[in-house]
Design brief:
Response regulatory domain-containing protein; Sig_transdc_resp-reg_receiver; alpha/beta; 6 helices
Length: 125
C-alpha cells in the first residue's frame, strides 16, 4: 500500500463516511477523513493528499469555503489537489458556482458508488 493514493473524505455523516471509505479502500486507496471544514486544511497540510471528496454541507466551514481556501493555498501542490464536491442539494448551486469556488467535479447524493469510483479514478488514477 506504500504507493497507494490518499483520499481525504470531508464528510460529517459517519454512515456516508464509512460506506465511502470502505468502497475506496476496496480500490486500494488510503483514506483519511475530516468531520468538519476546520479539519480539512489541517489534514491537507499534514500529509500528501491526492484527492478530496468534499461534502458541501459540513460544519465549521462549508465545502465551498474550504475549496476556495485550498485553491488560494501558497503551496502549489496543495492548491492543485482535485476536489470532488458531494452534495445532496446540488440544485442550490450552479456549475458556475462550483467552478468559481474551484471544484474539479461533483457527485450528487445519494452517492452512486460506481460513479464515485469512476470519478476518483479519473482524477487520481
Amino acid at each position: 500500500m506504500a504507493d497507494s493514493k490518499t483520499i481525504l473524505i470531508a464528510e460529517d455523516s459517519s454512515v456516508i463516511l464509512n460506506l465511502t471509505k470502505k468502497i475506496l479502500e476496496l480500490q486500494q486507496y488510503r483514506i483519511v477523513s475530516a468531520k468538519n471544514g476546520g479539519e480539512v486544511i489541517k489534514q491537507i497540510e499534514s500529509q500528501p493528499i491526492d484527492c478530496v471528496l468534499m461534502d458541501i454541507n459540513i460544519p465549521v466551514k462549508d465545502g465551498m469555503e474550504c475549496t476556495r481556501e485550498i485553491r488560494r493555498h501558497p503551496d502549489a501542490r496543495i492548491a492543485q489537489i482535485p476536489i470532488i464536491a458531494i452534495t445532496g442539494n446540488a440544485n442550490n448551486y450552479s456549475m458556475e458556482q462550483f467552478r468559481e469556488a474551484g471544484v474539479t467535479d461533483y457527485l450528487p447524493k445519494p452517492l452512486d458508488f460506481d460513479a464515485l469510483v469512476r470519478v476518483v479514478k479519473q482524477y487520481v488514477g
